[in-house]
Amino acid sequence: MVGTRSGDKGGNANLGVFARTPAGYEWLASFLTIERVRELLPETADLAIDRHELANLSALNFVIYGLLQEGVAASTRIDAQAKSLGEWLRARVVDVPSALL
């Protein structure tokens, strides 16, 4: 239904989420708000997050500030480079319209 790509940008995490169809993007753009990201990834609850819509790519990009503390070398996270952050998001259970499945 959706794919992801994520990684580090200093102490910030970059999380891209993309839909495979136009209908999927329409749902994704309305569903995956900053507030929803905070719900699905509780470790982001107190962090600043920017959301960027890339409609021409059927994608959303989130920048999560400070998730990686001072950066890769100083991060105490198991995933210090945020490479698996996208899969961590995709592992969450959410209601998806059956027409998209």
Describe this structure in words.
The chain is α+β, with helices and mostly antiparallel strands and 101 residues long. It has one domain (2-94). It is 23% helix and 28% strand. It has 3 helices and 4 strands; from the N terminus they run ββααββα. It has helices spanning 22-31, 34-40, 85-90; strands spanning 2-9, 12-19, 49-54, 59-64. A 4-stranded antiparallel sheet has the order 1-2-4-3. The longest helix has 10 residues, at 22-31. The model has no long low-confidence stretch (mean pLDDT 89).
**Oligomeric state of the chains?**
single chain
Rg over alpha carbons: 13 Å
Inertia-based shape: elongated
Tally the helices: 3
Write the layout of secondary structure elements.
Blueprint: E1 2-9, E2 12-19, H1 22-31, H2 34-40, E3 49-54, E4 59-64, H3 85-90
Antiparallel strand pairs: 1-2, 2-4, 3-4
Distinctive features:
four-stranded antiparallel sheet, alpha+beta, 23% helix, 101 residues, 28% strand, 3 helices, 4 strands
